[in-house]
Amino acid sequence: MSTRRRAPWFLTSPMALVSSTVIVVLVLLAVFAPILWGAAAASADPNAILQGPSAAHPLGTDPLGRDLLLRTLVATRTSLGMALLATLLGAAAGLLLGALPAVLGPRAQRAFGAVINTWLAFPVLLLAMLTVILLGAGSTTAVIALALTMTPSFARLAQTLSSRVGGSEYLAAARMLGVSRGRQFSRYVLPNIAEPVIVNVTISVGGGLLALSSLSFLGVGIQPPDYDWGRMLSEGFAQVYSSPTAIVGPGVMVVVAGIAFGMLGESFASHMRNRGRGRALSAKKLGPAPVATAPAFERPAAGEPLLEVEGLAVSFPGPDGWIRPVQDVSFSIGAGEIVGVVGESGSGKSVTMMSVAQLAPAGAAVTARRLRFAGEDLTGRSARETGKALGTKVGVVFQDSLTALNPALRVGAQLAEVPRVHERASRPEAHRRAVRALADVSIPDAERRAKQFPHEFSGGMRQRALIAMSQIGSPSLIIADEPTTALDVTVQQRVLALLRREVEKTGAAAIVVSHDIAVLAELCQRILVMYAGRIVEDVDVALLAQPERLAHPYTRALAASLPDLDTDRERPLATIPGEPPDLSRPITGCAFAARCAFATDRCREEAPPLRPREDGGAVACWHPQHGGGLRETVETTKAVA
Questions:
Q1: Which CATH architecture has domain 14-39+60-273?
Q2: Torsion on CA atoms 102, 108, 112, 117, rounded to nearest 10
Q3: CA of 602: how far to CAs of 230, 328, 529, 563, 589, in Å?
Q4: CB 529 within 8 A of CB 342
Q5: For the chain, N or C: smaller number of CB within 10 Å?
Q6: What is the Rg, in whole angstroms, of the alpha carbon atoms belonging to the chain?
Q7: In the chain, how long is the greatest CA-to-CA distance?
């Protein structure tokens, strides 16, 4: 069964077809008209001064007897060239001013934003005239003046578009991998804002053409003996009553060219709104070549924790003071260990682990009394120094696989960033490594899939691609932030099995963040229970099967809310009454006291520290529970609430 190839979109859109045809004609005139008629257009003829339209001169002649039609056609190169140059200069400057701060940080964004706002406050005409006064009239001045007036509008557009990219997970991952700022700008920011910018450039060429013609008409643009359509309009205006055809040629060309570029820009915009992104590529086999493996990171000595965190706190500025979603968090992870982090939404799980990976959200103030990784003390170092020290030693699997992958890059190209940036691998070698990584996580036809975009992957495949990306640099620690969110049970099971297999194969440690304690029970060896920005219990996962041995009332309540096959369907599911505290306000005492059946005055006045338990683990509770059934604890909690 044969398939009919779809015609290009601009051939099916009348507006795009007409506008592109006109622009092609204008470009051909700009290229060939000066070659064919340049000399004739510049030759004065004393015997043909100020003649009206005739067969020899369809638009008549000027005061020097030069043919107006030929001059109009020859002026196409100057008029279009100046408009294109000014627009491109304005767009380039605007992109640097508006989009570059996305990779430079919050301070640069605020500073550049202030510059853009100030620039936009100046009237366009005043700015252009000021430029002319400072630099003098001429074609170069006109181009500079127009570029300066276009720059702030392009900057504001780029600033708006790049703000979304600047907060994306895929750009955060690029920073963590040590991708240079120049590469972040060229491969992560620009491709994701290119389409609206291209549309705006196309539309702006028509406006720039009109603006440059206006400057030349006023006598501050191009100067004799050079000429453009605006200069011709200025010269023909003096004889408009005696020979009105003198302004017909350049006037029509300005209008037609401006409308054509505007129509083409609108056609681009309409097409981009309606079309689906990306396309499937045919497989292209590479020749056999040895697949290099990334150098293994030197593991810490036996018995020494891979990661030690003490007194970690994260704060955000709020309208009524600081909001502290993470407060005094301390824990350690051993090499090869899989540790889960569980808690209700807003308990600080993701913020804590992303801060450890140096991926805290913009504006966050992160402090720690001690941060030690693989035997290296990182306490007191700047975020940039810490990120550089971690490098590829920490891999991250983000929660939303669609936003964690760069939509403008093929999946294979994104995986290849690690060997290309950190190991200076060649492009073919990095591609082979990326294909191998995809194959290792059981993605079928990895060679073809590596050439596809993220939206062409299913949710489960994208999640596996993220695991492959986190593994390609042979990290010592993997942080998985709710890796099974929005996946069905079957795919969830595959992703968990894959994550466990990769950890066992490489010997790396893993931290898995989830609000689902059942998921962690299948995967992890121990669980850190977080509540209101603090770790309230560090418990062995085996104790989940013996809830009477759980010490903290919150952990018991979480376990009680987990249904199983023996759950009585006639009774309502167990829940934790009440709501977590408002972290924008100071919390006195134990944060769980208002929801706890065993709270006393001491609990409400003094926060319990995280203390070791006699039977292993640790708990932050003044009244840890070691006896009594699970149902009794939950029912008592309900009664008190």
A1: Orthogonal Bundle (1.10)
A2: 100
A3: 84, 19, 22, 33, 7
A4: yes
A5: N
A6: 33
A7: 117
The residue with tokens 């936003």 is 403
- Above pLDDT 90, what percent of the chain? 17
- SS3 at position 13: coil
Position 299 pLDDT exceeds 70: no
Q: Is the pLDDT of residue 582 over 90?
A: no
Q: What is the dihedral of CA 130, 132, 136, 138, to 10 degrees?
A: 170
**478, 457 in Cβ contact below 8 A?**
no
The CA-based angle 548-554-555, given to 5 degrees, is 50
Rounded CA separation 159/109 (Å):
9
Q: What is the pLDDT of residue 303?
A: 54
Q: What is the pLDDT of residue 82?
A: 92
pLDDT digits (tens, 9 = 90+) for 186-240: 888 888 888 888 888 888 898 888 888 888 888 888 888 888 998 899 888 877 7
What residue spans define the domains of the chain?
14-39+60-273, 293-405+456-524, 542-641
In CATH, what number does 293-405+456-524 get?
3.40.50.300
Residue where the block lists tokens 């408002």:
582
Residues 6+ apart with CB under 8 A from 155: 93, 94, 95, 97, 98, 112, 116, 119
Rounded Cα distance between 367 and 216, Å, is 60
Please name the amino acid found at residue 584. S
Give the CA dihedral 163, 166, 167, 173, nearest 10 degrees.
170
Whether the pLDDT of residue 292 is over 60: the answer is no
pLDDT digits over 431-450, tens only? 999 999 888 888 889 999 99
Q: Are strands 370-373 and 307-318 parallel, antiparallel or unpaired?
A: antiparallel
